[in-house]
Fold this protein.
Amino acid sequence: MSETIGEMILPGTYIDVRAEGLIGVGGIASGNVGVIGTASRGPLGEFRVLGSYSEALDTFGDYDRWDPAAATPNLTLTRTLEQVFGGGASTVYAVRVAAPGASAMASAAWKVNDNATPLFTFTAVTPGTWANGLKATMDATGTGPVLLTLTLSRPNGAARETFEGATALALAQAINANSRWVKVGTLPTGAPATTRPTGVENTPSTQGGPDGAAAGSTEVAAALDLVANQPVNLIAIGGFPCKDIGATVLKHLESTETDNRERIAVLGVSSDTPATIASADVSVAANARVILVAPGIKADDAARTGEQNKQVSLSAPYAAALVAGRLAGIAPHVSLTNKDVAVDGLTADYTRAQQKQLLNNRVLVLFRGLGTRVLKGITTDPGAFKQISVRRIVDYAKEGVRRGSNPYIGKLNNARVRAALKATLDGFLSGMILDEMLQAYTLDVSATRRQEIDGVCQVTLTLQPTFSIDFVKVIMTLE
C-alpha cells in the first residue's frame, strides 16, 4: 500500500491513507549472548549463531580435559558455551579465536592415490586437531556405477561419512557435495576421466593444529569487532579473567554504545581472594556495563571419560558465563538478586564479612543458600545505576525508541508527523508499564523551526524503572 492515496471514489469523496498511524515497535531482543573463546575446531574469523549446546558441540567440538596446571592452556569456547546454555540462554553468537592466528594453523589432510601417484587431497573443513583422529578407508572392489567407496569414521565409530563414485573425479565431487567434515580443494581434472584410485591414507599425512589455545587480548578484540554490529545484549569471554581483558572489553562497550548497540559484559575475577579481586579486577573495569562475578564454580568435566570423579573446579570466568546465561533467560526488569543458578558447587564459601567487602567493591557474589544464588545483582558502576535491571530496562527503552522512530526518518517534520511519532512511542512505553518494566515515564517529541527545516527531531524521555528510586533522562536526536 502506498503511503498516500488521493483517488476519487465518489464525486467529491477522496480516501487519504496516512501510514504514520500504522507504525508500531516490533520485537526487541534482550537475551542474545556473544561468546568468545578457543576451540579445537570450527570457523575462524567469523561468528556462528547457535541455539543449543548440541549445536555448539557440532560446530566447535568437545572441550579438552580440564587441567589448569598444564603447560598448554585449556580450550575455553565449548566449556563456556556449556555454562551459557546451562544458565538458560537460547541464542548465542559464538566466535572461535586462536593465536598466533589462522594462517599459522594447519588443517588435517589425506591423500587419495593411484598406487604411488597422488590423485587428489581432501582436508578438514576447519583448522585444528579435531580431525586428526578421523580414519579413512577405501573399497575399490565395487562393480557397476559404484566402483569406489570411501569411508571416514570418528575414533569411537559412532559417526561416519561414506562417499561413492566410479572415478577419482566422481569421488572428489561426492566428497564436496556431501561431507560436513572434509573438502577437496583441487579436483583431479588432470587425470583421465576413467582413473580409479587404489587407496587412501588411513590417517592424515598432514596433522591439524595447533589449536591456538594461547589467544590473548588482541585476538579477543578482533573477535569482539566481529559481533559489534550484531544484536548482542550480553558478552562472555571464555576463560579470560577481567584483569587480562577488562580494558579491551571496555573499549568495545564504549564503541558499541556510541553506535547505538548497547550491551553488558559479564566477566570473571582472577582470584577467589577478595583483596586480590579489588586490586586486580575491580580497578580495571569499574563501569555500568560490566558485571564482575566471583567465585569460581564446580562442574562435571565431560572429557574425563571413565573416571570415577568427574567434578572439577572451574575459574570465575566460567561462573560469569553461567550468570550471563541466567541473565539471558529472564526479562530485562527482573532482578538477579537472590536468583538461583544451576551449579554443583562453588570454589569458595565467603564469610559475611567477605561478602560485604565484595559487595562494597561492586562484585556480583554467588553464595550457598537454598542452593546456589546470586547475593545481589549489581554492576561495577561506582555511580547511581548499579542495578543490572535498571541498565537493561534503559537499554530496552532506548532500542524501542530507535525502532519506533526509524520509520519516521525521511517523512515530513511537521506537527502532525511528530504527533504520530509521539503516539507510536507512547504505545511502546505504555507497554513497558504494563509489563512492569517502568513505573512511570514522561515523553516529549519536539523540533524548533530551524530543526524542522534541517530535518531534526528531538525525543526527550524521563524513565522511572521498576523497583528503583532513580529517574533516568534520555535525550535522542533523530535526523
User: Anything to note?
Assistant: Residues 426 and 443 are 8 Å apart (CA to CA). Residues 106-200 form one domain.
